[in-house]
Amino acid sequence: MTNAAMQGTYLGEGSGPRAWLLTTDHKRVAWLYLVSLTAFFFLGGAMAVLMRIELATPAGDLVSDDVYNRLFSLHGIIMVWFFLVPSIPATLGNFLLPLMIGARDLAFPRLNLASWYVFIFGSLFALFSVVAGGVDTGWTFYTPLSTLYANGWVSTAAFGVFIVGFSTIMTGINFIVTVHTLRAPGLTWFRLPIFVWTLYATSLVMVLATPVLAASLILIVLERVFGIGIFNPDLGGDPLLFQHLFWFYSHPAVYIMILPGMGVVSEVLPCFSRRPLFGYKAVAMSSMAIAVFGFLVWGHHMFVSGQSAYAGVVFSFLSFCVAIPSAIKVFNWSLTLRKGEISFETPMLYALFFLALFTFGGLAGLFLASLAVDVHVHDTYFVVAHFHYIMVGGMVTAYMAGLHFWWPKMTGRMYSETAGRIAATATFVGFNLTFFPQFVLGFDGMPRRYHTYPPEFQFWNVLSSAGAVVLAIGYLMPLFYLGWSLFRGARATDNPWDATGLEWQTSSPPPPHNFETMPVVTRPAYAYDMKGLEHERFSPHREEAAR
Amino acid sequence: MSFGIPFFPQEASSEAGQVDALFYTLLAFSVVLGLALTGLVVGYAVKYRVGSKADRTGKRSRSLPLEMSWTIASLVIAFIFFGWGATLFVRRDHPPADALEISGLGKQWMWEFRQPGGQREINELHVPVGKAVVVSLAAQDVIHSFYVPAFRIKQDAVPGRTTHIWFIATEPGRYHLFCAQYCGTQHSEMGGWVTAMAPEQYAAWLNSQGEGETLAASGEKLFRALGCSGCHGASSKVRAPSLDGIFGRPVALDNQQTVIADERYLRDSILNPKKEIAAGYEPIMPSFDGLIDEGELQMLLAYLKSLSPQPTAGARS
To answer: Of A499, B306, A417, whose CA–CA distance to A508 is shortest?
Structure first.
C-alpha cells in the first residue's frame, strides 16, 4: 500500500514488520488488533459451524461428547474474551477516539502498544490449550467442575483469560485519561459524539470489573494447583461463591460488549438520516446508567442456583431497572429517522439491522428477568438465543456497521457497495434463521450445552443449522471484498458520507499525527441540521484563522 | 403441536399454566411492541427516504414530554412484569406441609431417587398426580440441575448443600427429566423420565417395587454403624447433645449466637463439627468428611429429621 497516494498519511510511514510491530500510533495499533481479532472471530466461528453441523441430527454422530464439550467451551472463551470484549474498543475505538476528540494520539501511546502485546501473550495460552487438547468447562468455568473434575487444560486457558484481562484494563485506563485530558478546545462533554460516551462508560466498567475476574481465576488456579479450599465444599468452600464472583465481572462484561456497539449505531443512524441524534443527553446518560446498573444485576444468572429466593427477587427488580435505559435508547434511535433524508448505504443497513436484532434480544431479556419464566427457560436454548441476539445480532452487527462506516477513513479506499449490501442482508437473514428457532427450542425445554437431544427437537435444530450456513456467508463476504478494497478499491474522499465529527475533517487516511492543525469545536455533535455546514466542514484552516 | 413440529410445550403441573400465562403475556407484549417499532422504523425509512416528497417541516431532535412519557411507561410495564414473576417465584420456598418427600441425588451422570417408602429409582421418577411432591436435592460431585420442562420447574443440585423443588403433577404421562447445568462429558445423556400416575396406580406401582427400606431407616442403621449413637444415644457416658427432636429447633451456640437446626446446620455439624459448637459441650466430635458420601449423608439427615415429630416446612431453607 505504500505508494504515492499514501505519502503523508499514517500508512506511508513504513511498511516493514518493525514499522508495524513497534508502532505507537493508535491507528496502527488498531490495525494490529483488527487483524488478530479477525483471526479469533473466524476461529471461534469455525467451532460454532462444527457445533451446528453436529446438532443437525439428534444423535452425536460427527464428534464425540468430549470434543463437542470442548468446541462450545472454546467457542465461548474465544468469542467473549478474544473477540467481543476487545472488538469495538480496541479496533474502532483505538482508531477513532483520538480522531473524534481532536487529539494526536491516546494519552499513553506506549501503554496502548503494550496492551496489544499483553493481549497476544494471553491469547497464546488460550491457543495452547486449544492445540494441547482443549478445555471442557464451558466459558463460565463453574466450580467444582472446573477445579476438581475437568480433565482439560483449565489452568492454561484461565491463565490466558487472566492475562488478557490486563490488556483490557490498560485499554480502559488509556481511554479514560484520553477523554478527560485530550479533548480539543471547545469540545465540552455534551458535545462529545455518543461513541466517545460509550467508550468512556465501557472503560469505566473494564477498569472496575476486570480485576474481580482476575481474582476469581487466580482463586481457581490456587484451588486446582495447591488444593486451597475456596470453592470446594469438601475443603470448607462454597461453589456458589465462584458464581457470584464470576458474574460480578461477567455481567458488567456484557455491557462492555454492547455499549460500544450502541455508540457506533448512534453515529451511523444520524449520518444516513441527515438528522441530529434524537434526545442526545438521554442517550449519553443512559449509557452511564447502564454502566452503573450493570454492576448490580449479576444474581439474575443464579435464580435457580440455590441462591436465596429473596436475593432472586432483588436481582430481578434491578434487572428490570437496567432494561429502562436500553429501551430509552431504542426509542431515541427510532425517532432519529423522523423527517430525515434517509439513504441506505451498507453501514446504514447494518445499523438498521442492529436496531431490529437488539430490540428482539432486549425484549427476550424481559422474559429472563421475570423470575417464574426464568426458572423454566434458564440454561436452555432460550438463553442462548437471547445473548446471541445481543452479542452477535447487536454487537457484531454494530461492529460491521462501524467497520464499513469508517473503512474509507481507515484505508483511504472504498469498497463495493453492492457486495456490502448483499453481505449485510445475508447476515440479517442468516442470523434470524439461526437464532430465532433457538427461542422456540428453549421454550420447548431443550437445555443448552447438549451434544445429543431428543428427536422431537430436530426440526428447529435443522432450521438453525441451515441458518448458520447463510450467516457464515454473510460474515465471509466482507473478508473478500474488504480485502480487495484494501489494495484495489477506489480512492475515498476525506468525507465520503458527508458526516459531521472531527474524524471526517482530516484526510483519508489521516496523517500520522491526525490533524495538520488543531481543530476547534464550535458546534454540538450531529449538527446535521445546521445551515452552512457544507462550507465549514472541510476547512479546519478556517477554524485556525478564527483563533 | 401441528404437523409434528413442537411449538408449545406440554403443561403438566399446577405451575405450568401460571408460568405460561406470564410467558404468553410477555410474548404478546413483545410482539405488539416489536411490530410497532418495526412499523415505525420501516415507515420512516420509506416515507423519509432521500428524494421523497414527504413533509419535513417541524423537525425536532428532542422532546421532554415524549421522552418522559416513554421512560415512565417503560418503568410501569417493567414493574408489572417484575411483580408478576416474583409473586409466582417466591412460592418455590413454601411447599405445602403435607407434601410427599422424595430425595434426589445427582452424580456424574445419573439421577438417583428414593421414594418415601424407600423404593430406589435410577433416572426414573414416579410421582402421583394431584399431590404435592418435594424433591430434596443433593449432588455427589459437581453441580447438576433438576429440570422437568413439562412442569416448568428447575433447581440446581449443589455439592455441600441441600436444595428443594416442589410441584404438583396434573396430567398422567411420561415427561423428560433433564440435567440443565453443564456437568461434564455425558451432560446431555444425564436425565430420564418423570412418570406421573393416578394416585391408585402410583400406590400399585409402589407395591410392585416391594417395600424398600426407608431413607430414615437406612440412616438409623448408619447412625449406629458409624458410632454416632455411642455419644448421642440416651445411655451414653460421653456428654453429647441429644438429637431427639433436633430438626427445626433453635440451638444455642458457644459464641452466644443461636441457629435453627436446619439441613444446613446438621450437614455442617457432621462434616465440619468444629464450625458451630452447641453451648455447654466440648468440641470433641470428629469430622465425618470423606468417610461418608453424599447419599449416606442424605440418609443420616433423613433419620435426624424423623426424630422430630413435625418437621416444619419453614425450617427447610
So the answer is: A499
